[in-house]
Amino acid sequence: MLDKNISSFYALVFRQKHIQRWGLMRNIFPETLAQHSSECAMIAHSLAVIGNKLYGKSYDTGKIVTMALFHDVPEVFTGDMPTPVKYANPVIRKEFAEIEEQSTENLLAKLPVELKSGFSEIFENIEKDSECYRLLKAADRLCAYIKCMEEEKYNNSEFSSARKGIEEKLEETKKELPELEYFMEKFLPAFDLTLDQQQEI
To answer: Could you report how far apart the first and last alpha carbons of the chain are, in Å?
Structure first.
């Protein structure tokens, strides 16, 4: 008989390492949800630091990193829904948003009652804090763009059209987020280099 006093919250969260992303694409380098969340957190942190140091912003870097680490956690129940499917039309998007919300509730229900509010505010902030959400979305898109760059670097043309579409969205976002433009100019080009070249610059 299962002990109802234990919590499966983190056991479920850690299942992100089993969730594969880019399911409709041929991948040279498979990417898990755990890997994506970690990379997204690093980039979100970088954008926040750039914004604070260079553009007079006042981002809460700890809050943004935490949001990035948890932003896709509901997918431990749903799997990674490919973007073309998820955003195919407003009806599907609305339905999937409700599924994600239910997944979040299911996950939070696994927490001890005395801790639940400390975690529920993370998921609430992801949607409600527009400034942080915009930065998180930019970091999420940068991760997807970098993934496309890395696949194309090894002659996988499967990601070419995805890269163009993401680049267009990033170009639009740069107009309101100078920290994103800075990151793209200063850091992105190195992802196209070899290891030796990366070490030389």
So the answer is: 59
Radius of gyration of the chain (CA): 18
What is the pLDDT confidence band of residue 129, given thresholds at 50, 70 and 90?
A: low
Strand, coil or helix: 180:
helix
Distance CA 73, CA 60 (A): 21
15-43 pLDDT per residue, tens: 999 999 998 889 999 999 999 999 999 99
8 Å CB contact between 146 and 188: yes
User: In 3-state terms, what secondary structure has residue 20?
Assistant: strand
Instruction: Report the pLDDT value the prediction gives residue 1, as an integer from 0 to 100.
Output: 66
Closest residue by Cα to residue 32 from 44, 14, 50 = 14
